Inverse folding.
């Protein structure tokens, strides 16, 4: 982001950049930078808090009126309170007890396990006012079989999504599956920390086990592309 | 997910050590008061309109985000899974502060908001961004933009 700001400014348009990684801003030296002490993925800091976000945006925009550059790098002092856990938070869905398939489970067994688990997730998700699910462009009914094929080490040869390799299609469906679950887990008005929500997903669900198993199978494959893409099924700190 | 200093040490070290471009010059465009500026947002979160192809790694492109695009029509296909997305799921403005900028324009703090904002894939190699930057700058100029707010993930 800092690099693109530099390149745009070089072409004559003023820029101001919010940044999450201060050391990168120090190296790239965008014309005007505001480092924010928020978690990665939350440059405005606090979901659902318009006043908080407005303060961050104003601090970044205020740098546009400064003439003491080139290279202004300021630190934003206010912490985002939502980084801390919500004491009484519970996921808004109660999952049925479904056994995680074993090491040699078939694709059918994995797909069945996911379908057995996700009914309450689908129900809760349908009640949310907004969804970010859909980047994978694959009908939800086809997700279990696609992901299960990778978990069972029987990746498909034909892609269900035009223009993508099968593993690329699975990679975006994996993101959709994660979003489906985490959106369902947070009832409107609740403010759990990201760690609380992700602990629930990665530590308790068959869906997470399916993604981990798919990633592991692809990494063990001789096909390096499979491993490279499927590595993103699971964040590095949840492997 | 977490702040950089809260990540597993190996992961934090890998992010800290990522190669960054070093530029020989330091451009700095001076402009007027914020209340006279026309501002666009550029997000590097790999967000785009639902139904479009994903933001693929290595494709140095930008996507247009009309300011009127409903929040429920925006998805994220950034290549990395190593940052929080639950904030984005709860509130688009956690990543892409379009509603905050609109309010600031309505309040007269900012002169005007662009009709179109933009998104790129921030994980791509900035060394390959010259053509992308030329095209994006062209679009910004056509829309009379004189200030850009960059937002990362």
């Amino acid at each position: 982001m800092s690099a693109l700001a530099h390149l745009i400014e070089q072409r004559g348009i003023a820029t101001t950049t919010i940044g999450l990684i201060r050391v990168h801003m120090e190296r790239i030296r965008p014309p005007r930078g505001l480092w924010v002490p928020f978690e990665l993925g939350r440059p405005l800091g606090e979901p659902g808090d318009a006043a908080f976000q407005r303060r961050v945006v104003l601090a970044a925009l205020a740098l546009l009126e400064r003439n003491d550059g080139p290279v202004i790098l300021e630190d934003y002092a206010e912490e985002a309170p939502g980084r801390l856990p919500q004491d009484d938070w519970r996921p808004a869905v109660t999952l049925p007890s479904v056994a995680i398939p074993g090491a040699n489970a078939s694709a059918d067994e994995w797909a069945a396990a996911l379908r057995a688990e996700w009914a309450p997730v689908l129900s809760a998700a349908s009640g949310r006012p907004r969804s970010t699910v859909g980047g994978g462009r694959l009908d939800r009914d086809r997700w279990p079989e696609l992901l299960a094929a990778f978990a069972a080490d029987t990746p498909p040869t034909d892609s269900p999504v035009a223009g993508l390799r099968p593993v690329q299609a699975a990679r975006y469906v994996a993101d959709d599956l994660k979003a489906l679950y985490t959106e369902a887990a947070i009832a409107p008005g609740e403010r759990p920390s990201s760690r609380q929500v992700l602990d629930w997903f990665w530590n308790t669900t068959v869906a997470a086990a399916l993604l981990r198993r798919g990633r592991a199978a692809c990494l063990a494959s001789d096909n390096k592309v499979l491993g490279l893409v499927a590595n993103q099924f699971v964040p590095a700190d949840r492997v | 997910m977490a702040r950089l200093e809260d990540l597993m040490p190996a992961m934090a070290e890998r992010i800290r050590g990522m190669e960054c471009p070093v530029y020989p010059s330091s451009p700095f465009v001076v402009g007027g008061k914020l209340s006279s500026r026309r501002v666009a947002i550029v997000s590097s979160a790999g967000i785009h309109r639902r139904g479009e192809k994903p933001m693929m790694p290595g494709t140095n492109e930008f996507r247009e985000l009309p300011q009127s695009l409903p929040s429920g029509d925006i998805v994220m296909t950034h290549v990395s899974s190593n940052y929080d997305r639950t904030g984005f799921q709860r509130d688009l403005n956690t990543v892409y502060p379009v509603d905050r900028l609109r309010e600031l324009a309505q309040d007269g703090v900012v002169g005007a908001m662009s009709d179109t904002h933009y998104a790129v894939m921030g994980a791509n190699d900035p060394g390959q961004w010259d053509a992308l930057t030329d095209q994006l700058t062209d679009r910004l100029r056509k829309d009379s933009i004189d200030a850009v707010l960059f937002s990362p993930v």
